[in-house]
């Protein structure tokens, strides 16, 4: 397992991070704990969760993921784990959080309330990486950065990051931090995969020039790059099989990930992986890690057997011919997720 620094901070993490967003909903507690143990034994020291997990968001189980991770955390040396969690962004925009009666925001009260809840559920007195889960571009970044700075000063948080942020938002946060003399975001957690390379358009350059690390989520495109949705398949219990049968945001997300262009690109990528003698999941994870602006790639699994092809990517460097073949597909089928 390789290790990389998060931004300009002192924290060094394994270049594979275990994401936990289905723990407590799609994945039961026993399986979740077993998966976490397996990843720890394999050398993964970085784990990501959020106050709003598990997904899909629902008041009946919100917070359960942090509780499961907290239970597991008690079985390991605390300083051996780099633990990341998130505060919900504003609920009046594209997403409504099940936390705080759907009245979340990135103001002082909400951030201070969220950190105390996460610390309690996780059973720890500090969070290594505390992230804003999604931004609000109509709210003053100064207040957000000041509160996050105070959490670091109080020893409740080591470093801060953002998620689902734009180039403008990331630069705005950095400008605010520089003006106020507060902590800055060391990481950004955005969607990035073979089927969604939009991060390379602008945000990658911001990360390079400003010393911010991407910790990408959905490197397997929500399981699509495994091929399990190819040919019109809708595996029972799979996330997008369920989302496509729902309404609203879940249905829209399902159609973004599973559509004619994304499946066509996936089939081409599966062919490249087969020619290289690789599992397509292994290739997708290895590709995600193979970028200079990426510190650690966040993976997610729902079954024990999903772990093996991910771990196979731990020390894998894709050869130049494979990277070129992948780039050809991306040029011929640009932006398959829109």
Question: How would you summarize what this structure contains?
Answer:
The chain is of the alpha/beta class and 338 residues long. Helices cover 39% and strands 12% of the residues.
Key phrases:
single chain, TIM Barrel, two-stranded antiparallel sheet, 338 residues, 8-stranded parallel sheet, 12% strand, globular, alpha/beta
Helix content: 25-40%
The structural class is: alpha/beta
Succession of helices and strands:
EEEHEHEHEHEHEHEHHHHEHH
Intertermini distance: 33 Å
Given this structure, which CATH class of the domain at 3-189 is correct? Answer: Alpha Beta
Report the total helices. Answer: 12
CATH topology of the domain at 3-189: TIM Barrel
Rg: 19 Å
Arithmetic mean of pLDDT: 97
Described by the principal axes of the CA atoms, the overall outline is globular
Percent of residues in beta strands: 5-15%
Total beta strand runs: 10
Q: Give me the side-by-side strand order of the main sheet.
A: 9-8-7-6-5-4-3-10
Q: Tell me which CATH architecture of the domain at 3-189 applies here.
A: Alpha-Beta Barrel
InterPro entries: AKR, AKR_Detox_Biosynth, NAD(P)_OxRdtase_dom_sf, NADP_OxRdtase_dom
Domain NADP-dependent oxidoreductase: 16-330
Pfam family, one: Aldo_ket_red
Protein name: Aldo/keto reductase
Give a verbal description of the structure.
The strands form 2 sheets. This protein has an 8-stranded parallel β-sheet. It is built from 12 helices and 10 strands. The model has no long low-confidence stretch (mean pLDDT 97). The protein is α/β, with parallel strands linked by helices and 338 residues long. It has a domain at 3-189: NADP-dependent oxidoreductase domain (TIM Barrel, Alpha-Beta Barrel). 39% of the residues lie in helices and 12% in strands. This is Aldo/keto reductase. It holds the Pfam family Aldo_ket_red.
